[in-house]
Automatic annotation (TrEMBL), chains A, B, C, D, E, F:
It comes from the Bacteria. It comes from Pacificispira spongiicola. Residues 1-22 are annotated as: Disordered. Residues 2-65 form the 4-oxalocrotonate tautomerase-like domain. Belongs to the 4-oxalocrotonate tautomerase family. Transmembrane segments: none annotated. The lineage of its organism: Bacteria, Pseudomonadati, Pseudomonadota, Alphaproteobacteria, Rhodospirillales. This is Tautomerase. Pfam families: Tautomerase. The keyword Cell inner membrane does not apply. It is an enzyme of class 5 (isomerase). The active site is at 2 (proton acceptor). The keyword Isomerase applies. GO terms for molecular function: isomerase activity.
Length: 73, 73, 73, 73, 73, 73
């Protein structure tokens, strides 16, 4: 009966604007497999929800991601 | 002091692209009423937040919802 | 395919330490019914997860709930 | 190792359609500073994620925010 | 910069009261690997947070999990 | 109408088992002030919910926090 929420910054992927449908399908498959393998959960009652977050809305080190990366270089 | 977060796939509704404002208002009213009826919570401090999730970003059975439904038929 | 997360302060209920199992069952039933009635969702793929939060860990008005209530009187 | 999720209604800001990038940067800086000051957390492992929620998708008092505000006047 | 939240019912594991520390470590490793493999994310900025939820606080099919399972047999 | 969820590892504080009530009160006050200062939000409708997460249930770098810290030394 697991519920998994994955939040990633909206970047990368084929158009640079986030994971493609194929990448999302692989995330869903991969994470579900981990739950099945480690805890023996049933895939039928395993939800995986992927949220994409704008880069300017994600902070690390006290800065939005774009500024944090500039500063790290 | 309850906080309720409802996540649904973005589908259905009048245009097929998710719940209408009227449906969201009914969800908010219905869920708030349940909190009031069962736990005696005050509506004034009950938040309900509805998130709509793209079909391709929601997984069940190890598959994105559209693939899961095809497979189930 | 809905997922609902309900967060409430850990108070009330028969022992004053949070909702009883019967109250939780009624919350789950009530919220699921709202999703079914308003959006036609299937109960079989509707998850409801209830989190209880210590009073001192919930803030409103810039204060933990116990202090907020004292101040409001 | 903190993770902070801020949900706000999509309103206000320079165009009336939500916080500007500068406001988001100030939110991220301000909240990270609080975690550092109060708990001595490291900014490098402090994530802040800001979600903007449509007004019609946020309920309070059993009503969507726009209806709640009309009623309060 | 991913954040993953895994919610599971508190059951199974060596004592029947939820995943062991070793199982949690394998969940963390497995899910992080999926993010690295599919999206090329850096493990250093990948957070995985596991929440265990009491069986009576998790609903499916309009029932708490223990009642749902009884009914399914 | 903001909702803020703060997740921290259960450590530190006076007994080494997480933030004290006073520290939680300061977190709630500090974060609410940021929302008021930056976005002009009303404290009366600003919720702050603090979750403490066991160290073994929080992963970074593909490892539970205790293992990650050992490795980093």
């Amino acid at each position: 009966m697991p519920y998994v929420n994955i939040k990633v910054t909206r970047e990368g992927g084929p158009g640079g604007n986030g994971p493609s449908p194929e990448e999302k399908a692989r995330l869903i498959k991969g994470v579900t497999d981990v739950l099945v393998d480690v805890l023996g959960k049933s895939p039928a009652t395993t939800f995986v929800v992927i949220d994409e977050v704008e880069m300017e809305s994600w902070g690390i080190g006290g800065l939005p991601v774009p500024d944090f990366r500039k500063q790290s270089h």
